[in-house]
Amino acid sequence: MKFGTKAIHAGIEPEPITGAVMTPIFQTSTYAQEGIGKHKGYEYARTQNPTRTVLEKNIAALENGQFGLCFASGMAAVDAVIKLLKQGDEIIACNDLYGGTYRIITKIFEGLGINAKFVDMENPANIEQYITPKTKLIWVETPTNPLLNLIDIEEIAKISKKHQINLCVDNTFATPYLQNPLDLGADIVMHSMTKYLGGHSDVVMGALVTNSAETHAKLAFIQNSCGAVPSPHDCFLMLRGIKTLHIRMDRHSENGKKMAEYLVGHHKIGKVYWIGLPTHKNHHIALKQMRGFGGMVAFTLKNDSLENAIKVMESFEVFTLGESLGGVESLCTHPATMTHAAIPKEDREARGLSDTLIRLSVGIEDADDLIADLENALKNI
Fold this sequence. Notes:
The chain is of the alpha/beta class. It is built from 13 helices and 12 strands. 47% of the residues are buried.
């Protein structure tokens, strides 16, 4: 079954009582039981919910995985993965990653005795020198947020398997439509479904997918015990959003290409970050492990001042200044003060994330209108 068909049909059957084509919203907290220990597979809504079950089957199928789990947010999904570890264990994480992931590792889990090393993974061999007997998790984000660096999942997976360490890949930017980390050797795939999977900026949710029954059982125990589960209504909205993922991602990628090419040719623009550009330093990795390049674009100005960057961002009329990404509407974000504010300034700058970087989530509007909006904003500097 090809992707577009899976997005619409995988895990989804007509509701057996009425024949409803769309999965109903099972808005209930509990379920009637026929007797002690006798039920229809559902006991309590924190543990199981039929709407969520369908969504979990659907996201697993899209990632070519056997088991899916959905959470109340992307960060709840990250939290569950790290809770697989115990005091004294160590994480090796890529050094350019979402600020919320950095924050939960350094501000929450390091205080509980789980430490992390943030490593440049663009050369996978860099990882070897940081691995110790305490290393229990390798955390990869690719493409990275916000610098759009690329990490070779297959090569990292070879190292993780050699040392018997779990490899988790945050696949939020790429989505299952453009990249499938499990096929490349990852053990767990994580998504902030809030972004492209939902696609309409109206749901906050996270997901994990794995092929390991043992890992799934542990994560399901954490999911039930900690209770960070999404509502039935949110699961319904997510199922609806996923049905158009493949169509939206094609348009995001098409518009991302047009925006990146426009920026590269503009005399007021400094650096342009888009993984589809042949000049991108790791474009060859994108060609190797991805089926498209997406709609995430970042850039700096040639006159690289914070004052000018702010002036551009506040001059947009079609692009909306705000956090998040992946919606049908185009968004503009200032990572240093928004998505990555939790990372100390010196650490951000050491990783190449300047205070003047502007990140665009290019939506599915008419590309000519988006380019005109950017052109008008640039006229103000």
